[in-house]
Amino acid sequence: MLLTLGSCSPSSEQVQETTFRVNLGTEPPSLDWSRATDHVSFNVVVNLMVGLTEFDRDLKPTPMVAKFWEVLDGGKKLLFHLRDDVRWSDGKPVRAQDFVYSWQRLLNPETASEYAYILFDIVNAEEYNQGKIKDPALVGLRAVNDRTLEVRLKYPAPYFLAITTFEVTFPQRQDMVEKFGERWTEPANIVTNGPFLLESWKHENEIQLRANPDFYLGKPAIDRVQMVMVNEKTTALAMYERDQLDFIDNKSIPIFEKRRIARRPGYRVVPQLRGYYYGFATNRKPFDDVRVRKAFALAIDERVFPKVLHGGEQPIKSWIPPGMLAYNKEIGLSFNPSAARRLLAEAGYPNGQGFPTVTLGYNTDESHKMVAEAIQGMWKNNLGVLVRLDNQEWKVYLSRLLRDPPHVFRLGWGADYPDPNNFMNLFTSNSGNNNTRWKSKRYDELVEQAARELDPEKRIELYDEAQRILCETDVPIVPLFVTTEATVLNPRYTGLELNSMARLMLRHVRLKEPST
Amino acid sequence: MGRFILRRLSHGLAVLLAVATLTFVLMHITPGGPFDREQRLPPQVMANLYAKYHLDQPLWKQYLLYLKGLMRGDLGPSYKYLHRTVTDIIASTLPVSGLLGILALGFAIVVSLPMGLLAAYYHNSWADRWCLFLATLGISLPNFILGGMLIWFFSLQLGWFQAGRWGSPASMVLPTITLGAAPAAYLSYLLRSTLIETLGEDYIRTARAKGLKETVVLFKHAMRNSINPILTVMGPLLAALVTGSFVVEYIFAIPGMGRFFITAVTDRDYPMIMGVTLVYSALLVGANLAVDMLYSVTDPRVKTQ
What we know:
With 516 residues, chain A is α+β, with helices and mostly antiparallel strands. Helix content of chain A is 27%, strand content 20%.
């Protein structure tokens, strides 16, 4: 059944309900925030729930359910003091025990949560998830009383507050989860505490939210939200142009339409905390030679990417993305074809002569192909080296990266929480995500120290040195750009600002005043 | 007849078992697993997931577990849609695809019968050429192009229909045409060529010489003998149409089963791959059986003993 109350024309009377219509793209795989892993699910959850903290515009954690917090014991103990006016949709107050239950559930091996590891800094959390400890009470989590949550960490972790903004740490109601089992997220069963209530969920079709009149910050200005699941970008864009949607982003704008859409009122490009990089298989010839890796990095003119992809992509040379602590645009190798040729000659391949056939791998996708072709051209022109392009289906590609990565490979990395630790950890020696096979003891030490350092200034210094190793000295990767979300908001509305974590937060959306 | 049906049903079950086994083996030897992500999971987290879904068991055990579930009608949990079973998903999406498929088949029949008749009866005339032209267009135009064109013209330019989604009767018009165009063209081709052949037969000449009315000759004598090839293709066609079309459902955002033929594989959602394959196979077996039974009605030479 299609709902037709969607539209709300500019001339509509004030008494008419406002329904804000967005495209989720696909069915959310799970609305259980302990088990969800993807943007689609989190974009629904973030409108149904609030947690201890939330990001402000500067990506700093600000109080939500937690009124304030204390960092004790040299950073190893956190005490969260909760508000007393936040209520679940069935009227019961949100208590510290609801957080303890949710976090223990996230860590419970039987839940098999993919994000369990996000809480591994807590005392005994990893051991409990591994099954080495059976009693969840031994995990460093405690409800001191209904309003106070105590978290004990294995070591000081300056990024831990940022983790409490992440949806997987939102509270849960033990009675409801246990009563309804796998069905607890269905509209009839779910109990939430956020700005909107889950009214209906027609699988593979649409989700309807209703404003929560009892939300502790006040009822949102829009009465309803209709979230449709339209996969095909061309169709979603046609729906926007037919006034069937009020907001679209990358999920609803085909690459070839981006230039046209950029001229529409309400268009905005939002850089994301999501890096796009090429990695080198540093254990394979010829990329075991750092001079070759540097030559390849120096031969890339990163300014071309926005021209290729038309999405306002932001070129980068260093790994920590703009907007995050310790972002430093001075770090990294700048485009310098003559230096690149010199290094390649030093490595024994003057003008690319005698260079072995190497492969550049990426997963099958139009935009990855465009980037790969652009870089293939630059390496041909600037180094005299012709690399072979090789694309594979996503999961085949991922398993290949694990077993036997191609000489050069594409990957991306998006922040779970906006702290450089989340980005820099990726290339440590024991990181499961370091496909380059590169190892640096000094880099590992710096990243570890920075993760335990509470002083932001000192952290920045440590990350600067680590980034220099990663992007200037050893160059196991070449950061290329941060991805962006192109968004268009129906000019009738205001107040929707997609943040750099691409979260679709709708509680500030409202109709513009008639005069504007 | 009863024994015929029983025999065919037991053959059908054997086919289904073979399909299940083959699919099970193929999907497990395909590289990549259901929980492989850009952000690779820590080993213990992966181990918990594998334990939850019994993926840590030897393959033969997993296979037996699956068959055991299947006997009870349990198609297993989806690895992607965490709170839903494969049975849930198929139960909610198959009826949508089924309706779209039946509408598309209805459209195909309604369009192809007069076209095929016209083209065969006025063989080599302008009418024939027009019908052939339309049929060629219908077959050669990929449905993502046709769907896109229909949306552009009828939705964006004329504003007659919404651009996508499923629900009201009006929302079904464009998807039905998109999905039905190729089968309509194919059926009209088939009908035309068999009718042309039949109309040249001696008994038609005899019927005409006896002074029978042209409509009787055409509909009673010629059509009846030309219908069998159409019935033959109708079985697989029906199975293909009612289990959904990935492309058409994708373009029009229809909550049908078709998309799962692709997404289940790209997600490596093993139980979902098995589920949609088995449903498709079962429908194919069923539709072919139904067609064989229909033969005995339309063609007295076919015995179902």
